[in-house]
Write a structure and sequence with these properties.
It is built from 21 helices and 2 strands. It has about 500 residues and is mainly α. It has one domain. A hairpin with a 6-residue loop joins β1 and β2.
């Protein structure tokens, strides 16, 4: 039986009224939970896991898939409106999405986000449905050296491409990597950079860093500079539809973001953070080359591309989960536990032993993507009206929202103190024009890079040649070198242009 026939049979199961209801409930719950800092789709699935044992397996996993998709988009809503990502995968969306909101284009930013999520999700789910078993072989080709090469590519792209000053980008990346090593080392058990505080033994949560830098830092920075915007100065456009110009600027980023995100979901432990940063860097570099860049002031490309990459990665994450039994995200890890609770073991044989459930789940991913579009696109103006609140009320609510979200994650007062310390750091970084993005990518990918480098060195007994011992790793490093060469050439040209302009200035005066 071919994949198309199996998918049609999956739709027959997923389109029953009961399963449609569970899919819709999952999307709504995921969207609602995704907007809360510190929670997210993984916690929603974990909290609902005991309740789903009352359901039959197909209905339970259809609801889980809906939560997964809804949670990915829910985090983008507060990223755009409040500069507060609900999840780490929505960090990049905040950079340009919030700038668009401050220019009165919150509805358009939300529309670009949900349409990007739709495009990325539909294309990626189609790839999963028809090529899942073939792509499992690609995932098996990744080892410690390949993961380390991916981390290096993300570091260079973020520090050099996303930021205007490579030196400040590298400094910010160093801050993020320093934060990432706080706590007990997983491999050696050594205690690092805790300064004698037992509360830091578990490390610094990425949620605390994200909310502190982006939300609390923005509020403190604005609070100390009240002249930067009077209360109620933000005007909100009331239509969720994109203009022809917006569509013309968005459709290629949607496709490029999807292409960037597709392979990362397949890679075990890949995650959606790397492709969103890479997509943002790609769109920013292309805008610079065209000479019409709005990045930093609200470029719609900076919302469209990363959101498509995010949802493409979310969909293809089902390949290693179902085909290898390897989760690539916290939500996928909880879903793996759910499979095991039902007495199933994901792996190459799952497509044969549990074919009905697998294909119904894949069909429900298509349905969840459509539900996501239908639920969120018409309500974009309603969400955007939050920005009509007076600035002082909005920011006061944001501080309460962030504090409650962080406290609810662990019930730790120390995390709240740490939140405001990181917020003060974010305020100083804005004051002195130090970019925030490299800090976040350093915190997220620092442990991955360190852990995979140490595993590679242990496997090769200290031989560095293992880092370039595979075609995949060499290909990634080749891309990295091309990026570095292009950037170096651009900076040399810019320097020569500035020198020529300075020489012509005095001559013109004489």
């Amino acid at each position: 039986m071919d994949a198309f026939s199996l998918l049609l049979a999956g739709f027959a199961d997923a389109l029953t009224p009961a399963n449609l209801m569970w899919c819709l409930i999952g999307v709504v719950l995921g969207t609602a939970v995704g907007v809360l800092p510190g929670l997210g789709s993984s916690m929603a699935v974990a909290l609902l896991l005991p309740l789903t044992f009352l359901l039959e397996p197909t209905a339970a996993f259809i609801m889980f898939a809906g939560i997964y998709y809804g949670g990915q988009f829910g985090g983008a809503t507060t990223s755009i409106l409040l500069n507060t990502p609900g999840q780490s995968t929505s960090i990049v969306t905040a950079f340009e999405g919030h700038a668009m909101a401050l220019r009165g284009r919150a509805s358009q930013a939300l529309a670009a986000s949900v349409l990007g999520s739709f495009v990325g999700g539909i294309i990626a789910t189609t790839v999963v449905a028809f090529f899942a078993q073939r792509m499992v072989a690609f995932a098996l080709g990744f080892g410690p050296a390949e993961y380390f090469a991916l981390a290096m590519l993300a570091f260079v792209s973020t520090a050099a491409v996303v930021t205007s000053s490579p030196l400040r980008g590298i400094a910010a990346l160093g801050i993020g990597m320093a934060l990432s090593v706080v706590g007990i080392d997983d491999q050696s058990g050594a205690v690092r950079l805790t300064f004698g505080m037992p509360q830091l033994l578990d490390g610094v949560s990425i949620v605390v860093v994200t909310v502190g830098l982006l939300a609390v830092g923005e509020v403190l920075y604005t609070g100390f500079r009240p002249s930067r915007g009077a209360p109620g100065s933000v005007l909100v456009s009331g239509t969720p539809w994109l203009s022809r110009s917006d569509l013309r600027r968005s459709w290629l980023p949607w496709l490029r973001g999807t292409a960037v995100g597709l392979p990362f979901g397949i890679i075990p432990a890949g995650g959606a953070e790397i492709p969103t940063f890479l997509s943002y860097g790609t769109e920013k570099a292309l805008a610079r080359r065209r000479g019409d860049s709005e990045f930093g002031r609200g470029a719609i490309e900076g919302v469209a591309g990363p959101e498509a990459a995010n949802n493409a990665t979310t969909a293809t994450a089902m390949i290693p989960l179902l085909g290898l039994g390897l989760p690539t995200s916290a939500t996928a890890a909880v879903m793996l536990a759910a499979f095991q609770q039902y007495g199933m073991q994901p792996g190459p044989l799952l497509f044969e032993s549990e074919a009905d459930l697998v294909w119904a789940l894949l069909a429900s991913m298509f349905l969840g993507t459509f539900f996501l579009l239908l639920i969120n696109l018409p309500f974009a103006p309603l969400w955007a009206r939050l920005l009509r609140l007076p600035r002082r009320h909005l920011y006061a609510g944001l501080m309460v929202f962030a504090t409650v979200g962080i406290y609810s994650a662990k019930g730790s007062v120390f995390d709240i103190v740490l939140l405001y310390v990181v917020g003060a750091l974010g305020m100083l970084m804005r004051r002195y024009d130090v970019p925030v993005a490299p800090v976040l990518i350093g915190v997220i990918l620092g442990p991955l890079a360190e852990g995979e480098l140490r595993r590679a060195m242990a496997a090769s007994q200290g031989d560095l040649a293992i880092l370039v011992d595979s075609g995949i790793a060499v290909g990634i490093y080749a891309v990295l070198l091309v990026v570095a060469a292009v950037l170096a050439g651009k900076r040399i040209r810019d320097r020569r242009a500035r020198t020529a302009a300075e020489r012509e200035g005095p001559a013109a005066v004489r």
